[in-house]
Specification:
This protein is α+β, with helices and mostly antiparallel strands. 24% of the residues lie in helices and 12% in strands. The chain is elongated.
Length: 149
Amino acid sequence: MPYLKAMIKETFRLYPPVPLLVARETMLKSILQGYEIQPKTINVSPWAIARDPEIWENPEKFIPERFLNSSIDFKGQDHELLPFGAGWRGCPGIAFGAATVNLILSNLLYAFDWELPCGMKKEDVDTDVLPGITMHKKNHLCLLPKNYL
């Protein structure tokens, strides 16, 4: 189960449910780490944070192992991983969403062996997403389930 949880965290890192959190704004002009922030101009992007090379090594690669010996979680306490937001403005459905993903994914992995269609290699799997308010795959994922049970 630790590897499954690491895979889920890595998936949430690369593909947060929404690329921008609920807009937050500053009341006054301020300076943050040398950057001048004008009033009413703050948006938090978990998508951009997840791809920041100053925070993540090889940020564009899917590497679940980065979470195996890490205390980083997606519940809003660690600001390098914010797929559901943080604080009192965080998603109220985070516990339900995380439990649902864990349950469905573990059942699918338990019940089936998965393979790529004939002639397709793992490098051919398309992970592109469409722009928008929520993250959607650009092209369908092609996997073939083989009944394991």
